[in-house]
Amino acid sequence: MNKSLLMATLVAAVALAACGKKPEEAAAAAVDAASAAAAPAVAAAASAATDAAAAATDAASAATGAASAAVDAAAAGASAAVGAATDAAANAANKAADAAKDAADKAADAAKDAANKAADAAKK
Fold first, then answer.
1. Contact 6/30 with Cβ under 8 angstroms?
2. Is the model's pLDDT at 122 over the cut of 80?
3. Which residue in 17, 90, 92, 119 has the most C-beta neighbors within 10 A?
4. Sign (positive or negative) of CA dihedral 60, 66, 71, 72
5. Is 119 exposed, middle or buried (0-12, 13-18, 19+ CB in 10 A)?
6. Which residues contact 8 (CB under 8 A, 6 or more apart)?
């Protein structure tokens, strides 16, 4: 692009010089020709930059959405884990209570047996 622009400027300067215009006029005409030639390239570059900025904004928005979804998923997983831990603790507490009740019943039965044996021994 730069080489094409330089060549266009040089060709315009040579053409103007061949037509007999003054060097100042030739230089001004060359600058105008170069500006006219560069205008579409500048517009295209500005459009490309705008498109790139829009794409970057879209990518950032998508990344933010993905991060939000990941946080939501992590929160849901943590909530499920807390629920499972609570259920497991409740089950363990119930089993411990049942075991304590069974042990108390067995201790009471053993105490009754011992009392009955003591009473039988006292009768003899």
1. no
2. no
3. 17
4. positive
5. exposed
6. 33, 34, 37
Q: How far is CA 25 from CA 12, 16, 19, 91, in A?
A: 11, 8, 11, 97
Q: Does 106 have pLDDT greater than 70?
A: yes
Q: What ranges do the domains of the chain cover?
A: 2-123
The DSSP symbol for 20 reads T
Handedness of CA 12, 18, 19, 25 (dihedral sign): positive
How many residues make up the chain in this entry?
Answer: 124
Residues 81, 107: Cα–Cα separation, whole Å: 38
- Whether 26 has a pLDDT exceeding 70, the answer reads no
Q: What is the pTM of this model?
A: 0.42
Which has the closest alpha carbon to 37: 3, 88, 85? 3
Token pair in block for residue 99: 């075991």
How far apart are alpha carbons 51 and 44 in whole angstroms?
10
CA torsion sign for 57, 58, 61, 67 is negative
Cβ atoms of residues 51 and 41 within 8 Å: no
